[in-house]
Amino acid sequence: MTDLAATRGLFALPDGVVYLDGNSLGPLPRGAVERLRRTVEAEWGERLIRAWNECGWIDLPTRLGDRIGRLIGAPAGSVTVGDTLSIKVHQALASALEMRPERRVILTDRGNFPTDLYMAQGLVETLGRGHGLKTVEPEAVADAIDGTVAVLMLTEVDYRTGRRHDMAALTRQAHAAGALTIWDLAHSAGALPVDLGGAHADFAAGCTYKYLNGGPGAPAFIYVRPDLQNAVRPALSGWLGHESPFAFDADYRPARGVARMRVGTPAILQMAALEAALDVFDGVDLAMLRARSVELSERFITGVEASCPDLALASPRDPEMRGSQVSFRHADGHAIMQALIARGVIGDFRAPDLVRFGFAPLYNDEADVDQAVAALSDILATRAFDRPEFRTRGKVT
Ligand SMILES: *Cc1c(COP(=O)(O)O)cnc(C)c1O
User: Fold this and answer.
1) CA-based nearest residue to 274, from 23, 29, 19, 18
2) Mind listing the domains of the chain with CATH numbers?
3) What is the value of pTM for the model shown?
4) Residues annotated catalytic, as ranges
């Protein structure tokens, strides 16, 4: 079993930085640097086209899928890696809607990430068959599940508030109503134990650049329940999801299993970095990771509430109802976060008024929490955020 105090050394974190934004972009794993160098120089550079076979490039999506599967309760052969999460959401939704041809409602919640909502809206337009996206408050999802719902499409952990849905209970309820489920695990994978198999989830997708630390632009993953895989028609019927890509048939025939959700040529350099990032999770007990994340988040909430009376907790108070992030509201949230970042404490801001902090016990500890609380309370007490340089907004917040 890996000691979580030891994993911090596996990341190349800059000196003087308290990094509480692994929920947006995980830090650089030291192993990724060496792995990328090897893949670029020894594989791409030396082996050239031969590397697809000799270095196992062609099977990377499957190999990585199985490794991610172990972190999300998915059996071997049920996850494949590639593309972006937006695309994987589109694929899952297109396939799921086709499996419920007599129904027209996609049920989601206001806490879902915009790209999930946009992809659904776009797909509804493309299909032109009168589907509708029904968006309710997160607390109202359970009551909105009825016999009209084709697909329940949710993000398990709300990107703004960290509120966490009960995946098993909602999936059970959706199935009882005859609906399929799609779970977005963007803020779950690598952050807390997920049990897709135990929950009988039908589809799931996630990204790997957040808590899995795969690097900017790292590929996404998609899960399809094993007994559904061969009934799923892939809407994006790319050649690498074909049963026999190198037969170069003129007609599409889907591969067996989850491999049919592959689309085109995998991003090998990104996947190499991701493979090294996943090495960090080897031997990590996710239940222990989760317990540490609760400890750190609780310590942060207690510290902030004791010293920053102007900040209002926007996350659920009950840790069981949260993922691995904590958000507070303040009308000057953007300037406050800029002032905090200027002091080396990095979180992020989500419009209109949320300052957001992610806790990743692979590299965060109590000292990080205490430094963040101290910096935040000083910035608020002295109104250090009230300076023109903290008012300008970058393209990315
Ligand atoms: C981060 C995030 C995404 C991002 O999708 P990309 O296609 O990787 O840009 C999608 N959904 C959720 C819930 C997210 O948190």
Assistant:
1) 29
2) 4-28+285-391 (3.90.1150.10), 33-279 (3.40.640.10)
3) 0.97
4) 113, 184, 209-210, 356
